[in-house]
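Hi F.,

I've been meaning to write this up properly since the lab meeting, where we talked about keeping a consistent format for the predictions we share between groups. The idea is simple: the sequence comes first, exactly as it goes in, then the structure tokens exactly as they come out, then a line or two of notes. No screenshots and no reformatting. I'm using this chain as the first example so we have something concrete to point to.
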Amino acid sequence: MIKALRKRTRPDNLVNQVRAGGKSLARRLYLFALGSVGVILVTAVVGPLIFLDADGLVMKERSVISSDYNARVTAVHVKPGDVVKAGTLLVSVSSAETLDRIADFTAKVAAAHARETQFNSRLTQIATLIPVARDRSQRSSAALKHLQALSARQLTTAPRVMDATREAYEAERELAQLSGEIEVARQEMTAAANARKDLAEALETLKASYNRGQIVAPVDGTIGPKVPAIGSIIRVGESALDLYRGETYVVGYLNTSRLYSIETGDSVIVTDGKLRSSGVVARVEAVADALPPEFQSVFSARERQQVVRIEMDPRREGDFPIHGKVKVTGLFTPTNITSMLKTAFAFVANTAMRIAGIEAVEPPHSLIAGSKQAEPTSVGTVGSPTDADSPEQPMPVESSSHLLPGAMPPPPADRFLYAR
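Output, unedited:
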């Protein structure tokens, strides 16, 4: 028997349910990831304008090693990256054209020397004849005067006076001719000596330039990435190879629309992603230059940015390869902080592995990739990992033919990580 009806709940006066307090862990992780992505995007867009985060190239002073003549490479004595001293033999070449020029100059020097000797001999001869001609002229003049005095008293004939006059004239003309020739001979000998000297200097310069076909390093430095091949032709003015010398520095490219300031003497960080080094801004150039091709974007117009020169820590100069791409950052830029965190994480991980006694052990010699291994058979033998040099203690192993269908074969032995 129904005594009363259950009272229905009216929808207009429902009691509000209290939502469970706090947010779920998944929601928090989602918001954190979303915020991180937003921060990364904002930093990537406006970070280079607010913080120092510039591209750079590791550089050294470059010396171009070239040839003053066309030559063929006969031997190459260095490799890319070699450190050489001044005077080190780099390349041996051969030039038939230069050898012909040396032979031609040698013949010209010999001819000039013979000409100079000829003029010197003529000058000596004239110098010897002039006193004789002067004495003859004096005697002829004295005889003519004596005959003229006798002729005035009619004590001699006219033909004798004429002969004496002719003799005096010939003696005077010979003296004048020798006197003129000695001046000309002196001038010609001086000109021949100067010509011979110039030819000899040109010959020595040509020989020094050719240097028996040896191209040597003019200064201490490091060989560039390219060296000529044996048999290749080196043209006049072409670079045979590059020699990098002096201290290592970084050429950085700063955004011209940056909002931060940078001055000479500011401390910066230079990194290539693995290596890090401190640096000091040595000079902020007052010019802008086009970015190198490796920094240009294919989707934008060619950029021009301000150039800055950065001196590196001398203790870390040799760690960075020449012409390597680096990043120039400030001490508190996001890029530098991220790099420091990565370095710290790697250090902690390595320390933990070292404490746990785990390290990569070099695999046995018989298991190194490339070494000769036994042919797979039903039962094979391999050397023991602990005693690779004892082939008389074989260890039987089952071949892959005994694996169950669908089973994976064991990984290569050189990828095992052994625990100490």
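Notes:
Helices lie at 25-50, 96-152, 158-210, 334-356.
Confidence is low (pLDDT under 50) at residues 360-420.

If this format works for you, I'll send the rest the same way.

G.
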